Amino acid sequence: MTGADVDVEEARAEEAGFARVGVVGCGLMGSGIAEVCARAGRDVVVVETDAAAAAAGRERIIRSLGRAAASGRLTPAERDAAAGRITVTADLGRLADRDLVVEAVAEDEAAKLEVFARLDRVVAGRDSVLATNTSSLPVIRLAAATSRPERVIGLHFFNPVPVLPLVELVPSLLTGEETVRRVGAFASGVLGKEVVRARDRAGFVVNALLVPYLLAAVRMAEGGRASAEDIDRGMTLGCAHPLGPLALADLIGLDTVQAIARSMYAEYREPLYAPPPLLARMVEAGRLGRKTGRGFHTYGGNAGAAMREDGGVPATAAGPARPDRGRRHGEQPT
Predict the structure, then answer these.
(1) pLDDT at residue 15 tops 80
(2) pLDDT digits (tens, 9 = 90+) for 205-218
(3) For 254-293, what is each residue's pLDDT tens digit?
(4) I need a surface site. Which of 5, 27, 37, 101 has the fewest CB within 10 A?
(5) Which residues fall within 8 angstroms of residue 67, CB to CB, at 6 or more apart?
(6) Contacts 24+ apart (CB under 8 A), 281-290
(7) How many CB atoms are closer than 10 A to CB 300?
(8) How much is the pLDDT for 318?
(9) Rounded to whole angstroms, how far apart are CA atoms 157 and 132?
(10) Secondary structure in 3-state letters for the chain
(11) How does residue 116 score in pLDDT terms, banded at 50, 70 and 90?
């Protein structure tokens, strides 16, 4: 590609909006957000906590791009071009020139508030937008940590980000309409996502419906009414869900489910949003689901270890069954 070609490509990206994208956090969500932005032709800088986390995050992105190429969703040239657009660093100052920065750190209010306060100092462009990928926290609370609340918005992707088409667009009471327009156009027109607009209430649209369902499944297991495996089989085979509720909770991360539930309960004070004691005990024990190898089911190298966290009803150690026609693209909606 010649220098003139690069200039033309950058001009086209700028015209379409947000040519330079930043992402804070390179876990499952942050790496996925970085990947889809790079695949859409954006220059992407991802910031992690330290050099080791940055290296691990870049490796996660490269593996995902490799899987996309192996499955035919990307050509080898597209894979390599996307990888070349991504820089992963531990230096938050590298976000100074970004047009859009998406925060994707853990679902912890104090951590997110600190990130937004630092981004407000670092990101130089007064027209630059700061977005949060929060699953449940009020966007207005994060916007209040900045001097530019009119340019702060919720942009909630769903995991796996490169596969699931939905994005929730969540303006706060102070978000400017121009910010809503620009970010909505970027998510739909540039990233190719389906956008639903949600009010700035804990849980937004999807989690306000999903989380009570997951918590009901936890309570059912906690009460010993059925094993974790049978609860999940009931919903996959009886209702054609691609994953059962406890397997889905494992995939999301039990700590994340608990954090979302706590945020929703704090806002609504409805008992159906309150995290069950069993969920809290499993989080305290470090049994967080797939990412630790054990949750309501067991995964990977732990698959031989039987568990009884489901209220005393033995669960099959091999993990949840999937219906024959289960679709992978429905695996995790949060």
Answers:
(1) no
(2) 999 999 999 999 99
(3) 999 999 999 999 999 999 999 999 999 999 999 999 999 9
(4) 5
(5) none
(6) 281/309, 282/254, 282/309, 283/254, 283/255, 283/258, 287/254, 288/253, 288/254, 288/255, 289/249, 289/250, 289/251, 289/252, 289/253, 289/254, 290/250, 290/251, 290/253
(7) 10
(8) 36
(9) 10
(10) CCHHHHHHHHHHHHHHCCCEEEEECCCHHHHHHHHHHHHCCCEEEEECCCHHHHHHHHHHHHHHHHHHHHCCCCCHHHHHHHHHCEEEECCHHHHCCCCEEEECCCCCHHHHHHHHHHHHHHCCCCCCEEEECCCCCCHHHHHCCCCCHHHEEEEEECCCCCCCCEEEEEECCCCCHHHHHHHHHHHHHHCCCEEEECCCCCCCCHHHHHHHHHHHHHHHHHCCCCCHHHHHHHHHHHHCCCCCHHHHHHHHCHHHHHHHHHHHHHHHCCHHHCCCHHHHHHHHCCCCECCCCECCCECHHHCCCCECCCCCCCECCCCCCCCCCCCHHHCCCC
(11) very high
Q: Which two tokens stand for residue 144?
A: 């209040």
Cα–Cα distance, 115 to 22 (Å, whole number): 13
Q: Which residues are catalytic?
A: 135, 156, 168, 207
